[in-house]
Structure formats: C-alpha cells, structure tokens
Transcriptional regulator, GntR family (Psychromonas ingrahamii), 228 residues
Amino acid sequence: MSSSSFSTISASARNLHLQVARTIAQGILSGALPQGSKIPNEMTLCDQFGVSRTALREAIKLLSSKGLLRSKPKIGTTVTDKTNWNFIDPQLLEWMDGLENSKVFYQQFLGLRKAIEPEACALAAKNASAEQRIELSDTFQKMEEIAKDFDHDRWAEVDMHFHRLIFLSTGNDFYLPFGNVLATIFMSFILYTSEDTGVCIKERRAIYVAIMAGKEEQAREASRFSLL
C-alpha cells in the first residue's frame, strides 16, 4: 500500500469514518505508510476513499486520538513515531488483525503477557470474590467439556473469558484495561498459537486450582509455566 493506493470505501454512512480510519491505520501498522511520512491532503483522500470531508475529518481525528497521526497547520497530517501509538487501545489491536506482520505483534503481546499475567493470577488467588470464583469455576467446567470434544473456535472463546476473568479478579483496577485488551486480541492470538489440547487443559487446571485454593505463589508459578 502507498499513500496513493487507497480505494473507495463501501460502508453505511453510520460507520464510514471507521472504515476509513481502519484502512489508514492498517497502512500505518503494516509499515506501508512509514513513520514520519505525510499522508495526502484532504481533497485527495476524499477522492480516493469516495467519502465526504466530514467522514474523513472524523477518521483523522480518531487516528490522532490513538497517537497514529498528527496534524499541523501549513504542514499537513503526518504519521507519528510509533512511540506515540496507543498499543493497548482495544480498537487499535483489532485493526492489527490480518496484517502480514501480525506475527510480530503476537510475539510482542506474548511478551506483555509473560510480564503481567503471572502476577494477575497471584492477585486473583488472593483477592477474587466468591462470585468471581463461582464464575471462574463455571468457565473452567466449560473448558473441560470442550477439551473432551475439541472445537478450536469454542475453546478460544472460553479460554479468552477464563483469562479475562483472572484480570478482573485481581482487585487492582489498573489490571482491568489489560483484561479488556485480552478480550480484543486473545481470539486471534489463541488461533495463532494453537496448542496441544491435552497439555493446554492441564495448564489451565493448574492455574484454576491454585486460584480457587487461594494459593498465590502456586498460581503465579502455574501461569509462568503455561506461558513458556
């Protein structure tokens, strides 16, 4: 993709600006629109996308709020350095899906998980409420049922919910955004990193048992082992 290869957007008027924003964002995230480069002017982009100035301006505003673009009078709109990009924005993570360089993002995401998920499991073992433990138990029972008659898509969905529950059960509000990030990227991540079913359920069981028993260190170590 180059800055002159955008094609007409086909979408309802209600989400037209989101389609434009997604297309530009994927060009940036893939490197097709390099950091520091200037995107075409408003009139050119409106013609390329086949949208109104209002829709385009809303798209540019959205991308600017996520740190991808910066507009300045007499200079135009440029792609910012990636140090400004809001990588934990759920919408930005969703836009990464399907890119040719998704593998790089998934590897980086795994690095983030390794850094914070073991501690989240330990906190959940310590702080999860009775209601959260009940929901975690119900979710794990579904995982065991799916593991017996394996369905990859169903497994990914329930496994994502299992991990999100752990982050929501930490008792620490600063972990909540990461739970939401997991909900956005986890489906694609699990499908990308397909594991052996038997091994996977054993690892989840170790985490589950430790959390339900309130054993912080055991939960932390079980999580670390599952992320190796």
About this structure: DSSP finds ten helices and two strands in the chain. The longest helix spans residues 102-127. The domain at 91-226 is CATH 1.20.120.530 (Four Helix Bundle (Hemerythrin (Met), subunit A)). The first strand starts at residue 69 and ends at 72.
